[in-house]
């Protein structure tokens, strides 16, 4: 009986995904993600370029941890772009890069809002300026969460040593801290997905939840498809032979596509859970 219920829920979820055209909308998101990536790189490299030069410790760590989730061809494209824009950084590029990255990323967040409104069956009643403002604020908040996660991953050991030295903690704390770095980074990822699900769509305050099943499914699915895609490309990477220099860009777009699909499927899971909860209340 329980297996039958899970099968019915899975069928309803799959039907919702198809009816809301989630995979087509994920392709739209991949386009916005690509537009936002390189202005963001321009801003970050201009801001951090003084210690993110080729061969610097920061740059090596950043690319190595990006390689943990991104396909190798996409990492090579990012590395090449990073080298090119590092050669001509300046104060003007810092402000232009910030504005361009913020505008492009907020466009992507606006597309996520539209899709999640469809997913949650929510009608958009907010004025356009409020939708844009929410998109910009969400983009800034997510940027801080991502930077915080990167800081913990890249400099977690240094942070742990500083805390231990400041408060006179033992070596056990340092070992425990190094073990907890990745779970803490996952908490940042869950917080990122939850922020999107709570504030991107036009939900009422009483409809927001800070621990959602969609965030768990979305993060797990994103990690699964990222690592699965990397394994596939490791053994069956024919993009460079088929598409030449465009192969790396196609791989990057595909990874963005999978990322967008994971975010939107998590939203569908949330909506299905809410409807199931309302149905259970109605049957009591």
Walk me through what this model shows.
It is built from 10 helices and no strands. It is mostly helical. The radius of gyration is 21 Å and the shape is globular. It starts with a helix and ends with a helix.
What is the helix fraction of residues, given as a range?
A: over 70%
Number of helices: 10
What do the pLDDT scores average to? 75
How many whole angstroms does the radius of gyration measure?
Answer: 21 Å
Shape: globular
Our measurement of the CA-to-CA distance between the termini, rounded to an integer number of angstroms, reads 19 Å
- The run of helices and strands is HHHHHHHHHH
Query: What class would the helix/strand composition place it in?
Result: mainly alpha
Largest sheet: none
Unreliable stretches (pLDDT < 50, length at least 5) are none
Number of E-state strands: 0
Strand content: under 5%
Q: Can you summarize this structure?
A:
This protein has 284 residues and is mainly alpha-helical. The chain is 83% helix and 0% strand.
Which characteristics define this entry?
single chain, 284 residues, mainly alpha, 83% helix
Helices and strands, with pairings:
Layout: H1 2-19, H2 22-48, H3 57-66, H4 72-86, H5 91-119, H6 128-167, H7 171-199, H8 213-236, H9 239-243, H10 246-283
